[in-house]
## 1
Amino acid sequence: MIFDSHFHLLTMYEKKMDLTLPEHFIGLECGTVPHDAEERIKLVGNNSDIYLSIGAGPWCTGKGKKVESIISSLSQDILKYGADAIGECGFDNHWKDYGKMNEQLELFIRQKELSDSLNVPLIIHSREADDVLIENIKYIDERTIMHCFSSSKEIMYKLLDRGAYISFAGNVTYKQNYMIKEAAKECPLSRILYETDSPYLTPVPKRGELNKMENTEYTLSFIANEKKIDREIIKENAIKNFLTLMKNRKSIVKRDTTSL
């Protein structure tokens, strides 16, 4: 069984990658912009072990784009197809061409409201924005997935206190990322997830290549070595955590786009 709590099949398609999915696979294909759902559903197909989110990241703000318009577009996709989760959404101070933080925060809060109304998980992107994340920690709860966790173990414990699940990506394997390694080492099995963020963040020893879902096995092995726990125990717990978030059911997203 291959497990991946966060990947982007549409971006892989745009990069002309092989989209053949592992034979035994469970995971979450994640949205990044409004109105990408139909294309993504067509790529994913009818496999109900592959869940789909709908969301708009902080890159959707700025350049005259109104939050209300973005949320309206997301709501249309949700009404048409449903959603297993909302996101990714959140905060990013790394790229300077994204919208101002007040715009990013407004877009995040509106998507939190969507996730609450649907009672589905919220996937949070937070890059170089720990201060904003902690200032708004009241929005974190047991339906939260911290995607591609890249903060300190101290930040992680604050999030865990709110009930969040922590998802580690391939960057945990990078030599210089001691802070993320420490967080992975101390993350409790009851709250751990792992991901590729394909086609990005390819783990060692495949770094330099475009990432694919099977590469979670390298990240899993690395975390297992750091924690000194059998990798199958971590995988078993991660899948259990994921299914708890998804209410132990199959994907509810409508797959027959021809009839919609």
## 2
Amino acid sequence: MKTTFAAIGAFIVSLMAGPGAAVSQTSPDPKVVEGAKKEGEMIFYTTMTLDQSKQVVDRFQKKYPFIKPTLFRTGGGPLLNKIFIEARGGRHAWDVTVGRAEMVMPLMERKLLASYRSPETRMIDEDLADKEGYWTAYYVISYVLGWHTKLVRRENVPKTYEALVDPKWKGGQLSFDNEAYGMLQGLIRAWGREKAIAYFKRIAAIEPSLKRGNTERVALAAAGEYPLTVSYNQTFERMVARGAPIDWLPLEPAVVSAFPIMIAAKAPHPNAARLYYDFSLSKEGQEMLTGMQRIPVRKDVEPNPPRLFRGYKRVVENREDDFEGLVKLYNEIFKIR
């Protein structure tokens, strides 16, 4: 009888813990673990910073000491080129990659990605995982509007996309990225192509200050270079934490850029690849991202602070667009040569 009461009590506690608590922890498939032991290796390509990637790889190796991981880090363009060159030479050297959203379609078109539905995706919203299983968001960032708190009163800050293109902000008062292709992609998905293009032309009409580099632009904004800035929420939040005179808010729907994790179609160590994929999306793996000041995607892992990915409507940028055509369109709108 005591055992029965204990079991009932444990069940009630699990319900009180909130939705998702009972399914947030998963155990690796024993067959996958056994296969990974035989493989003994895992090759990881990434665009995430080397120091942070190494922390994750080291934690993974501590959890699975029978796997020897190899880490290679570079930028998105160079990484794609490396993968393509290797594939053309018949060399399939990598198992898992974490890259930028624009890498997805080129890899899929060349049939270089494997379909895999991790059990951890049960704790991840549907818009952050491919229905076919070719990618899942590992972490995210959102395009938001920041303002210098001494130059613009909070009540005067534009709260909508429409308010942002008011003529009173004309003449370099808005800092805008000259490569914010993902934002255009996202608004095309949310509003349709015609409306999104028309809106970006209105942004161009108020003559924003165009410059590359989100970190640099936000630093200049904090120094009072311009009153308004469209950039990544994570970059703004770092400046807020340092006490800079800057704050931010999302214009809804906020465009979210997802950094996907993907498995190679011809991974030399497919079981080890699945283990690393699962670990990256697990609660333990996602909590590591919070500690690195990145924005996790799991429902049961809170960003720090939560407003980074909670409390606003969003749209994930569209990876199925013709990226080269989008870049050309963007440059035409802003007359970038």
